[in-house]
Amino acid sequence: MTTHTALIEHIIGHTAILTLNNPPANTWTADSLQLLKQTIIKLNQNKDIYALVITGQGEKFFSAGADLNLFADGDKGNAATMAKHFGEAFETLSSFRGVSIAAINGYTMGGGLEVALACDLRIAEAQAQMALPEATVGLLPCAGGTQNLTALVGEGWAKRMILCGERIDAAKAEKIGLVEEVVEKGQALDAAVALAAKVAKQSPSSVSVCKTLIQAGRYMPRTQALPLERELFVGLFDTEDQAEGVNAFLQKRAAIWKNC
After folding, report:
1. Which residues make beta-bridge pairs with 20?
2. Is 240 a catalytic residue?
3. Does the N-terminal or the C-terminal CB of the chain have fewer CB atoms within 10 Å?
4. What is the pTM of this model?
């Protein structure tokens, strides 16, 4: 286990668990955003890590996002610096080579929801509340919120949440596709870890390129994505995982992935 003021890292099997730890609301700071970015880079280099789970310390908040005291003085230079830190941290998370899962265990607001949106999957506890309320205070979601939310739930619900400031509960979030699963209070982390464990049964090489292709659909025309799909399929035959996976299946045994 590695412990920092604002981020606790714990490894279970092939899964890294990152806990946001800045009470009372697990808000983001410049330091914690830079730490998240560096942690993801480090995990990308660890071939034993196939998945990561992000959750919040305590029972009330996943994360309330940025501390608004940071923007109270109206300093544009400070705003630009924080926007840069947010963008770099969450884009690094989004490009994590494995599978990232947000275990949403409470209030998830602003930059708190944006970090969950940057993950591949989201599991929310029944009591969780989610919102992007930045426009309410004269700001906007600048860490991928306008783009990632729209990609998940469509333009209509993105506009309701961002332009109207609508807060939604876990049940509504599941209905509109913002989260993939709702569990009882206190169960999000266990459910996320169990889902992450399934990733270890998949070829890490395959997961990485499949994720690349799925996310490419957000910006790449199908006329480009479909040929790329075939190209990356053939490219997997350059990996040891391809031969291991096929032969393990034929021999009726579990594959031993080399992630190369």
Report:
1. 7, 56
2. no
3. N
4. 0.92
